């Protein structure tokens, strides 16, 4: 039978009271207390008792910490059970978060199915080819993203076509040029007119009244229309074809280059029937942790 030695006492506290989980170790036992149960990182790198929500995850060990995936997941209270983004940028499934109002303070509610685009833009909105990462999180798998693909979050010409700002959008499966894709629309009203970081002179609605078709002054916030997450340039690693035709005029695109067609189609197979959100963000900055040496 598994037995635990009490390694620390009140007189001799652990050298580092905060473990990598961010929870403070109990000075008497050396275990990390999460609220629902204790965690032992030294002897078994797992929980000391069964997950109180274990019946929801019959395919996982009830003692597994973060479904054995602590690099991508966190467990705030010992009950790893929609998707939310923690303050530090980690995305995890929180069964208690069913809306923005029920999400913990400082965290972002993402919904039950979400495509997360993590861009690599510089201050001028330039992004190297295949520098962005797209992770697909779905309701049926709470352990992390079920599929990942590289790609881009900028158009081939930011000044001409505009670029989608960071934020949360609605996303629904829709065919794009014969391939499975996601149509990205407004989260609030389903409108296909979306804002852009820079002006978008290519969209005539920015300069003409769509009803009267008469000239008008440019509106303060330019818009983009019919924005998709779709297949990239399957011929070469570029956002334009050899003859200069744009692959993307503001859309979000999967991997570019030779052999990318099969990679995208494998990823897009997971998008069939998808209804959820698209979350565009910058790369999270790792939280700085300070270790205290108690003497």
Description of the molecule:
With 295 residues, the protein is mainly beta. The chain contains two helices and 16 strands. The strands form four sheets. The protein has an eight-stranded mixed beta barrel. The radius of gyration is 23 Å and the shape is elongated.
- Separate helix tally: 2
What share of residues is helical? under 10%
Shape by Cα distribution: elongated
Question: Care to count the β-strands?
Answer: 16
CA distance, first residue to last residue? 35 Å
Q: Strand arrangement, largest sheet? A: 7-8-9-15-14-11-10-16
Secondary-structure element order, as H and E?
Answer: EEEEEEEEEHEEEEEEHE
In round numbers, the mean pLDDT is: 78
State the secondary-structure class.
Answer: mainly beta
The residue ranges in which pLDDT falls below 50 over 5 or more consecutive positions are: 1-14
What does the main sheet amount to?
A: 8 strands, mixed, barrel
The fraction of residues assigned to DSSP E strands is 15-25%
